[in-house]
Amino acid sequence: MDNESSNVSQAEEIKVQANEAFKAHKYGQAIDLYTQAIELNSQNAVYWANRAFAHTKLEEYGSAIQDATKAIEGYYRRGAAYLAMGKFKEALKDFQQVKKICPNDPDATKKLKECEKAVMKLKFEEAISVPESERRFVADSIDYHSIEVEPQYSGAKIEGDVVTLDFVKKMMDDFKNQKCLHKRYAFQIVLQVREMLRSQPSLVDINVPDGSHFTVCGDVHGQFYDLINIFELNGLPSEENPYLFNGDFVDRGSFSVEVILTLFALKCMCPSAIYLARGNHESRSMNKIYGFEGEVRSKLSEKFVELFAEVFCCLPLAHVINQKVFVVHGGLFSVDGVKLSDIKAVDRFCEPPEE
Fold first, then answer.
1. Which residue, 27, 86, 101, 283, shows the most beta carbons closer than 10 Å to its own?
2. What is the fold of 134-344?
3. TPR repeats at which positions (predicted)?
């Protein structure tokens, strides 16, 4: 990590020297310096673009085309990565560069428009945002007890306020048969899990007794039948068979609603049987692009879109198992010296920042 950071820094210093050589019309020297920068950090599209420009000054058009192609690929790949991470402002800059070089590329045009729309929406949301202390949560406006369950409804039902194993099994069977859960019970599950998650720290310590086992699962991404298969192979979550699902429960797959309601119901049934961490797809920006928001609106209602967004902000960010194993969705940090106490102190009740 330190060596990589040093290479990036050194490459930037050489790029400055190369730029000065270019300004002085010393194009051969500039090409040599840009080459050194590329050898240290070949992922930076700017170096390729600058060297291509220097080649054109020397009428070395074949080399210029090769470098320009590398530059386009670099901008495109980085822009696509930024877009996938929800860093729309950075993605916009890269796709603007691609558009300048390839004005007729349909995919670049599509992604550029996508970024422009997302950035415009972010600016609008910032303009109308209110301080956290003045915010009104949609969860506080919902009284699920007042929602009537129609006599003809034959799906899973929660008796009273307790989510039981029998209910969870019935609900999962209904989902497997493409049946929906009544909105009353969906509200009840999501609101109950919200209260549980709000009381947890940003970093949760998990103790697994000697002789016991513990299962950690990665991205489910709306693949309900894969989730069912995991439980069939490994058993349902329980105090004796606990799980940690490490984020990215929703988006991409077609059954994100079924996945998230199943995980939340299991959490309500037995909080110590299942732990849930926040991934980058538990955020508004990702849910708008990758399908969860539209699925929720179709299967449930607009109010659920807002409710899930609020609950996702309550999910813990990281877990530590037996003071030995650190589990977090997004990997290690971009800076050194981060302590567990720093993570515990993070105010997570918000949308993730761009940085």
1. 86
2. Purple Acid Phosphatase; chain A, domain 2 (3.60.21)
3. 72-105
